[in-house]
């Protein structure tokens, strides 16, 4: 029994050493070059650079529709694809561009707010895209006075 175990151990060590010696000879240089190109292409990503990430509508009357545009540039080195844009509330509706934005090109994200709520209101818009972070966060805010009420909040200039 001991002889069989010893023979099996010696055979295993010999097989391991012979496999290790042949491993480098099995690597094909074409595969290495192709893998390097694939890895380099994987590093190319779009980048969303916004002119502003927050918009303040100032003081508005409740129920008064508002609209703003968030302009951005793709400062990355790959086409930018916006897959989804959602808001933190149904009263805010983002409308992103549908087509890819090429590197160096600009785009616009239109955001509509129906003026609901009262007092200081802040809403967020999440933009999902093929960027390194995967999503961008935008904000809109307003001070909403009740309909027919005298202004009580900060006044816009």
Question: Can you summarize this structure?
Answer:
This is DUF1573 domain-containing protein. The protein is of the alpha+beta class and 157 residues long.
Q: Can you walk through the features of this model?
A:
This protein has 157 residues and is α+β, with helices and mostly antiparallel strands. The chain contains two helices and eight strands, in the order H-H-E-E-E-E-E-E-E-E. A four-stranded antiparallel β-sheet has the order 1-3-6-5, with no helix packed on it. It has a four-stranded mixed β-sheet with strand order 2-8-7-4, with no helix packed on it. Strand 7 (119-129) and strand 8 (135-145) form a beta hairpin. The radius of gyration is 29 Å and the shape is elongated.
* Average predicted confidence as pLDDT: 84
Number of strands: 8
Tally of contiguous helical segments? 2
List the helices and strands in order. HHEEEEEEEE
Percentage beta strand: 35-45%
Instruction: Provide the spatial order of strands within the biggest beta sheet.
Output: 1-3-6-5
Largest β-sheet summary = 4 strands, antiparallel
Separation of the first and last Cα atoms: 95 Å
Task: Based on Cα principal axes, name the global outline.
Answer: elongated
Structural class: alpha+beta
Provide the low-confidence segments as ranges. none
**Proportion of residues in helical segments:** 10-25%
Based on the structure, what is the oligomeric state of the protein chains?
A: single chain
The whole-angstrom Rg is 29 Å
